[in-house]
Amino acid sequence: AGFIKSPLSQKRLAQDSVELYCEAIGNPIPEIQWWFEGNDPNETYAQLWDGARQDRVKINATYNLHSTSTISIANLTGDDSGMYECRASNDPDRNHLSKSPKVKWIRSQANVFVIERPEITTHVSESSGKLILSCNMSAAHLTIMGHKWIHREKILEQDENPGAFTSYTIDGKKEEHSGVYECVFEANPQIRAQVNISVPPQVTAYKKSEHGNEGDTGVLTCKNPSFPAVTSWSWHKSGHGVSALLENASGRYIIKSDGNKTELRILKLDIEQDTGDYFCNGTNSYGSGDATVNLRVRSRLAALWPFLGIVAEVLVLVTIIFIYEKRRKPDEVPD
Amino acid sequence: PAPAQAGRAPGPPDGGWGWVVVFGAFVSIGFAYAFPKGLAIFFKEIQDFFGTSYSEIAWVSSIMLATTYGAGPISSILVNRYGSRPVVMFGGLLCGVGMISAAFCTSILQLYICVGFITGFGLALNLQPSVIIIGKYFLKRRPIANGLAMAGSPVMLCTLAPLNQFLFDNFGWRGSFLILGAILLNCCVAGALFRPIGAGTALVKTQVNEEGKDALKGKITEDGPMGKKIEEEEGKDCFEKVNQYLDFSLFKHRGFLIYLIGNVLMFLGFFAPIVFLAPYAKHIGIDEYSAAFLLSILAIVDMVARPATGIVANSRWVRPRIQYFFSFAIAFNGACHLLCPLASSYTGLIVYSSFFGLAFGMVCAMLFETLMDLVGAARFTSAVGLVTIAECCTILLGPPIGGILIDTFGDYKYMFIKCGAVMVLAGTFLFIMNYYNYRMLAKEEKERKMKEEHLKSVRTENEGKKIWNKDSTQDGPELEPLREKGEGIKKEMNGT
To answer: Where does the chain cross the membrane (chain B) (predicted)?
Structure first.
């Protein structure tokens, strides 16, 4: 038996996860085990199994043409630091309790360092039409090689300065640039922190005025493109000076909402009852916002009158043209 | 109204009721060209209603356009048989019925049939007869009449676009289709104006005057008026019967073939720039309203360019060489497209739109005029049907090919270059071939004049001598075929 791939030593931050990968070959196919020795001087090697450490350890092994095994440990703590060993053997007696194996287990080691998460203080300040996002990292012992600012998976800015402080400036107002921003410190390992620009919901109507046909279903939509998402939506109708809350259960109204959008469906539109202004209101932990949508219900026969009018006009014109021609015919000499 | 004229009719009236007919053609042609484009406003709503993809909706427009052009020969056959007026009125009725039934459709397939086929077919029955009847009413002022009638397309488009938007806002798409169906019935009114003109005699005179040279080429048995004689004979065969309705002998006509090849080539690059102008503007970074404004500029310049071109084409200097003017217009169009990639700012695009509008109007105004000029008014009916069905394929292929070019290269300029190159090629081809055609026609005209003079001298000789002896040795061998032809012409002139 022999190793094709050995596990690699890594540095990780606390609460992150780590994956070690090991591949061995032999005839017959060798078995792979994972053993761990902590940093304490008293500790000895102990075997790891799938589900160990309160189910934080997962081992995934395949034994096809050769053996592969992947161990992943989630939610790392300082106690997870230490030496991890990948052991392989294809001796049939390897696990026998009394017999001693002829071939020893071959071993490959990797060191895992778990570093305490450094404190990063984040700050958002607004002044003279600009927004300034900043991250300040308190751990001085890490060597920082650069910074990055990321928003919606796009890199906004990056540099290669070694400082523990980095900032990013946006032109505009908080309401226009709400969302989740990440500042990244390029070090070993990479350290990220989240900076949130949170505002009350900037609710807007999808279309300020909607039309529907009598008897059909009318759909009114409001959306909230800002961060954070709306936790509760409500619809009100104001007609005849009364503001009534529209509920899901009252037969004709169906409200479908999620964090960014809400939809009010009105079944069987009625001209008198349903025409008017509708208010949608969205609330989150920072406040609330609303918008107005106006609904107009068209009568089923609305299009019929212009139609009949035009058909009548066509018939009249055609009749006039033909009568005019018939009356001129006796006067004209045929060509 | 034109005063009654005793004796021989002088040919097409060139005025009077003709201008009313031009107005009717204006309306009819306007609907035929502008209506499919105007429908685009409803597509988003219909797409949401039926839950289909954009390409499925776009098929409605394509089917309509394909039917309008593809049904050309059927239209020609019907006009040959029944005359313009009944065909246009029936076409208007069909359009109206198609759109009204579309208002009650419950599936996208039904929309294809009602809006695509039925309305498309109705528009085809509108388009061809309108163009044909202009040829019957005008000769000397025909280019102006054509230019004015073709101006219907941009005017209708400018009217239909905001009208459709208004109808849609107030009545929804079903109500709008109902009302549009009623509006299309106005084509019947336009058709009612197409008073049939004494086609038989006027046509024969025109034929003899303009196409004596064609007759000399030995096509006597296959021409239109002689076709009427065949009608009275018994035992006609199938080919002649079809020929009577749709003149397939046109494929031997040199001018017709030149026009056909040149135009089929041209249409490959004709419509694509219009389709992609607004997306190109948005791609450069211009906002939606300004992009739409470009199309409005195009339409307005087009509106003015068409009658203006008609007037220019009618002038003394241009009319005899109208084919050269047409080829120049096509090449000018191509040059505009080739230069378009250089326009990268909004002002540049405005300049491009204006020139494009001008070139587009010039080509459209003379599209049918040049065909009439080449084949003559009698055979124009069949010619226009055959031309439209041939153009149908390239018209439908043009924008998708442009789209493929844009998608492959990610850049609009290749589409413009392709369109420009195709049109410059078509223009040059038409220019060279028409130069050749004019020379051949001039040569044949000279030959015909020579033979007529010989004929006159032979007749006066014989009448003077009062001898009409076919076996006379005085006649040289070359006079025998001339005399037979001369008798042929005499037969024609007497056969009114």
So the answer is: 16-36, 57-78, 90-123, 144-163, 175-194, 256-277, 289-312, 324-344, 350-368, 380-402, 414-436
Residue pair A109/A34 in contact (Cβ under 8 Å)? The answer is no
- Contact between chains at A314 and B186 (C-beta distance less than 8 A): yes
Do residue B202 and residue A335 have CB atoms under 8 angstroms apart? yes
Structural domain A120-197, CATH architecture: Sandwich (2.60)
**CATH 2.60.40.10 fits domain A2-115:** yes
* Percent over 70 (pLDDT), chain B: 81
- How far from the centroid of its chain's Cα atoms is residue B404's Cα? 29
Q: Where are the alpha helices (DSSP H) in B141-151?
A: 142-150
* Local confidence band at B464 (pLDDT 50, 70, 90 cut-offs): low
Structure ipTM over 0.85, yes or no: no
Contact A302 B179 (CB under 8 A): no
Domain annotation for chain B: domains and CATH numbers: 14-197 (1.20.1250.20), 247-460 (1.20.1250.20)
pTM summary value: 0.66
What are A249-300's pLDDT values in tens digits?
Answer: 667 888 888 878 888 888 888 888 888 888 888 888 988 888 889 888 888 7
Q: Range with the lowest mean pLDDT among A37-46, B253-262, B286-295, B471-480?
A: B471-480
- Which CATH topology does A204-298 take? Immunoglobulin-like (2.60.40)
CA–CA dist A277, B378 (Å, integer) = 64
Which of B175, B183, B189 shows the shortest C-beta gap to A302?
B175
**H-helix segments, B246-287:** 254-267, 272-284
Sequence ranges of chain A with CATH classification 2.60.40.10: 2-115, 120-197, 204-298
The mean pLDDT of B37-60, rounded to a whole number, is 81
The shortest C-alpha distance from A308 to chain B (Å) reads: 8
Cα B475–B478–B481 angle (5° rounding)?
Answer: 95
